[in-house]
Write a structure and sequence with these properties.
Helix content: over 70%
Structural class: mainly alpha
Number of helices: 9
Distance between the termini: 14 Å
Order of helices and strands: HHHHHHHHH
Length: about 250
């Protein structure tokens, strides 16, 4: 699978410049410099777009996470693990996000899913953001409202994950593990994610994390949701999104 983040050179650019170089060397050099500057600006603009996608996707995921916490129907499988760690270690949920994030970075490395800058930044960004916004998210009351909130939040959380994949600067560590397993096992994203959700759910339940109806909803919906949104936003070789995200050479 090819990697993201490569900056292609326009075909024929060098060949097209040869006649002009022979007629007017100075003008040709000036033209090459102009094209070089334009390429630099284009590359900078592309990185800015990628960074914006990464931050927006992470923020959306974190906000949806906070909503599922306030719904009090049970957390998604990964969040059960983080909640269990927070309870067992006496730390904030945001700190637990950071701890599990870097643990998954190590797992991704073992699967040869090389982390990009975003992969290393996301655990800290998500954890700090969650601790900051959680006190400001109102509690939800009534089973119908709670169910709707969990359904919508999970579906939008999948969109946020797809955005971080599309950003191509290194996906969330958990998604990096998912993509690494997909590459190694040759399985679709949906079933791969479901298997991961079951694994972390059991671990989180053992640690005392909150399990309930919301856990089932998130566990069943998040995998198909990511697969759906990746098709919508454009995967662009998403399975290798964390590999060499910013440079045009093999790692």
């Amino acid at each position: 699978m090819s990697s993201l983040g490569e900056f292609p050179v326009a075909e024929g650019a060098v060949g097209a410049d040869i006649p002009a170089r022979r007629r007017a060397p100075c003008n040709s050099v000036r033209g090459m410099a102009d094209r070089s500057g334009g390429g630099t600006r284009s590359g900078t603009g592309a990185l800015a777009v990628r960074g914006t996608l990464l931050v927006a996707g992470s923020t959306l995921c974190t906000l949806c996470y906070a909503v599922t916490i306030k719904a009090s129907l049970g957390l998604g499988p990964l969040f059960v693990l983080q909640d269990g760690l927070a309870r067992r270690l006496g730390i904030s949920i945001g700190t637990a996000v950071i701890v599990t994030g870097f643990a998954f970075v190590a797992m991704a490395l073992a699967l040869r899913s090389w982390p990009g800058p975003g992969t290393l930044v996301l655990p800290v960004l998500s954890g700090v953001t969650l601790d900051a916004i959680l006190p400001h998210v109102p509690a939800l009351h009534g089973l119908a409202l709670e169910l709707v909130a969990v359904l919508v939040a999970t579906w939008l959380m999948a969109l946020g994950a797809a955005m971080t994949i599309r950003a191509s600067v290194g996906v969330a560590a958990y998604d990096a593990v998912m993509l690494g397993l997909r590459r190694v096992l040759g399985r679709p994203l949906g079933p791969t994610r479901l298997a991961m959700e079951a694994t972390v759910l059991v671990a989180g339940w053992v640690l005392g994390g909150a399990v309930g109806l919301g856990t089932v909803i998130t566990g069943l919906l998040i995998g198909p949701g990511i697969a759906f949104w990746v098709r919508i936003v454009g995967a662009s070789n998403a399975p290798s999104a964390m590999a060499r995200p910013l440079v045009a050479r093999s790692s």
